[in-house]
Amino acid sequence: EKGGYEHFMLKEIFEQPKSILDTMRGRLLADEGIIKMAGIWDHLERLTNAERIIIIACGTSWHAGLIGEYLIEEFARVPVEVEYASEFRYRNPIISSKDVVIAISQSGETADTMAAIKLAKEKGAFVFGICNVVDSSISRYTDAGAYTHAGPEIGVASTKAFTAQLTILSLIAIKLGNHNGNLGKADFMRLITELEAIPKKVEDVLKTVDEAVKTIAKKFADATNFLYLGRGYNFPAALEGALKLKEISYIHAEGYPAAEMKHGPIALIDENMPIVIIAPKVGHYDKIVSNVQEIKARKGQVIAIINKGDTQVAAMADYIIEIPETSECFSPILASVPLQLLSYYIAVERGANVDQPRNLAKSVTVE
Ligand code: F6R
């Protein structure tokens, strides 16, 4: 049932071209310039008239939520807050019937997320769910929703569910922006054409990065710490990369916005510190170039995720992993794939139980 792969996690990483496509299927009709989503369509006014959207989730789903915030604010210009479900539920949050809550959960069974949804509903908010497991508790309890069609995720570390969540959030943000007039026709068309090309680009990543990632994994399998850095949309991708490493390799890792390095973490950098930096040629690329310079001046070991054909970061980095170009808003999908593989191969090198990491469960139904 692992389809010839050694672990479910590896199988699920390699399934992503298909799981992303399945999540878009029937919803993204790029040729016709249409995004069709029943769950959104039926509640379009409620969503676009929201004074505020609050995204609640835990763990990897919370990281997807952070990227959702960037997407929705950029394209639909609706203010978004992202909260850990566990914090939200215990702090008497300000919430009213003018708010829309988007709850994200792979399993649809996470106790903290469920409790936060109940609280939001009591206060009159409209709750939209993004779940992967069909007919799960959260998917049944929410007012409306959209499933990620990633298929069953068995490995405890979430991989294909995460990229499916990013796909759904992209569709929602672009749809809302198109509907409320904040996203012009030309930009709308450009974005949906880009999004449609993502599954093929993920396939390209999977076909080309394996050797580079394995070499890096061998080199750093005994590291005790890692830093993950990214800017803009790739800051949450850095958080997610660090979480994957912690979960399955038991190596301490921290994700940071690259510009925050100078406010503290830079003190950690020496020749023994591996630093994964997500540096595609998007957004503030020139700033990322200076971040890499700062790290190299302190002899940190730079593992850079760059676009094919990049020369500036490539010239300074100790190791490079190349991904295809895409719009900044979709770049976390492509950058996440080698980060998943890196944590996987490091865990394998260390002989860790990849699919069943210690102390973790697939659905966290305890509070
Ligand atoms: C990460 C991971 C956890 C879950 C979190 C939320 O790989 O598996 O951090 O993301 O427990 O779970 P769901 O999405 O099922 O609510």
UniProtKB/TrEMBL annotation:
The chain holds residues 251 to 617 of 617 of the full protein. Catalyzes the first step in hexosamine metabolism, converting fructose-6P into glucosamine-6P using glutamine as a nitrogen source. It comes from the Bacteria. Homodimer. This is Glutamine--fructose-6-phosphate aminotransferase [isomerizing]. It is an enzyme of class 2 (transferase). It is found in: Cytoplasm. GO terms for molecular function: carbohydrate derivative binding; glutamine-fructose-6-phosphate transaminase (isomerizing) activity. Keywords: Aminotransferase, Cytoplasm, Glutamine amidotransferase, Repeat, Transferase. Residues 43-182, 216-357 form the SIS domain. It comes from Epilithonimonas lactis. One of its GO terms (cellular component) is cytosol. Its EC number is 2.6.1.16. GO terms for biological process: amino sugar biosynthetic process; carbohydrate metabolic process; fructose 6-phosphate metabolic process; protein N-linked glycosylation; UDP-N-acetylglucosamine metabolic process. It catalyses: D-fructose 6-phosphate + L-glutamine = D-glucosamine 6-phosphate + L-glutamate. The active site is at 362 (for fru-6p isomerization activity).
